[in-house]
Specification:
Length: 356
């Protein structure tokens, strides 16, 4: 008997999963997908380690899923691609026997029509099917003032909670560059959130629904850089948790559910500490992109003489090479390396066998 239901989790099931993670000291990998190869790879790895997993799409990933040639001036392709990816996950997750959290990644105020479109679609979908497509969405309004950020998040959480969707918010700024958003030159003080800011958001959102999580900046960055360039202050998470416990007079309860962005390249010690302080989700993109790249690169290196021409290889000048240049071969090589790398992340996050 498995602990969680296979398929896409939402509403109370999502909150139960995060509560279980916090209680048992593990976090779930939130892995960015850009097509069926990455979606299937993510779920395949989760099936291997018998744990739930988070499949997430950025607006760029959604656009790519729908097709790069499509116009996207009002985020119509980003929304369509995300809906398409979600339908795919709903169709196959149960077959893999994997509980899946479906999520969308960073959305700034400038792109919020993307989330509006997804919510419009899901409100109609919910009316018909009694469930949403996505488990949760993220709003990253960290460029706005704290009051404006949380104020808009309150409105969206109100709307989302009516259709069993959770919200992830961002406080402070994750450094580095991802998906065309460049935060590599922002003021260093913005990279570290203050515990009182975390509590301010926690207090406001709690009044609407408990189904939310907070990506608080603690010096984390998107991308992988040379060691020494990144100064993580995991203590910010601990201090925020203590601060919230004091305000709520609830010592030792870790009331805040934290999300760790820019997890790629982090040390196992920092990951373990962040989990101890209440991180229940760690985002992974850069390291997974690298793994997929390595799989494809190694395939081409190994079969260089079999993919250079349609006919003729070292075993015979007239032999056809169709079975070597079939795109499934190189995509599968990418998937296999991706799956192997993700299994390592599940282990780093203490997330092995969590659905048993
Ligand atoms: Zn992020």
């Amino acid at each position: 008997m498995s602990k969680f239901r296979s398929g896409v989790l939402y509403g109370q099931e999502l909150m139960d999963l995060y509560a279980d993670a916090k209680q048992n000291g593990y976090a779930l990998p939130g892995v960015n997908a850009v097509g069926t190869s990455s979606v299937n790879g993510i779920i395949e790895a989760a099936a291997k380690v018998q744990s739930p997993v988070i499949v997430q799409l950025s607006f760029g990933g959604g656009h790519f899923y729908a097709g790069k040639s499509l116009k996207n001036d009002t985020m119509q392709a980003s929304a369509a691609g995300c809906i398409s990816a979600a339908m795919h996950v709903h169709q196959v997750a149960e077959m893999y026997g994997v509980p899946v959290v479906l999520h969308t990644d960073h959305c700034s105020l400038e792109n919020i029509v993307w989330i509006d479109r997804l919510l419009d679609f899901q409100e109609a979908y919910y009316a018909k099917h009694g469930k949403p497509l996505f488990s949760s969405h993220m709003l990253d309004l960290s460029e706005e003032t704290l009051e404006k950020n949380v104020g808009i998040c309150e409105k969206y959480l109100t709307r989302m909670s009516k259709i069993d969707i959770g919200l992830e918010i961002e406080l402070g700024i994750t450094g580095g560059e991802e998906d065309g958003v460049d935060n590599s030159k922002v003021d260093a003080s913005k990279l570290y959130t203050h515990p009182s800011e975390v509590y301010y958001a926690f207090d406001k959102l709690s009044k609407i629904s408990p189904n939310f999580s907070i990506a608080a900046a603690f010096g984390n960055v998107h991308g992988v850089y040379r060691p020494g360039n990144v100064k993580l202050s995991v203590e910010i998470l601990e201090n925020s948790q203590r601060y919230a416990e004091e305000q709520l007079d609830a010592a030792g309860t870790k009331p805040v559910s934290f999300v760790f962005h820019g997890g790629s390249g982090s040390s196992p010690e920092d990951i373990a500490k962040s989990i101890e302080y209440g991180v229940i989700k760690m985002n992974l993109d850069t390291d997974m992109q690298w793994a997929f790249n390595c799989g494809v690169r190694d395939y081409y290196q190994e079969y260089r003489d079999y993919v250079a021409e349609q006919i003729g290889n070292p075993e015979g000048a007239d032999l056809p090479n169709k079975k070597y240049y079939d795109p499934r071969k190189l995509l599968r090589a990418g998937e296999a390396a991706f799956v192997e790398r993700l299994e390592q992340s599940f282990a780093d996050l203490n997330c092995i066998g969590r659905n048993k």
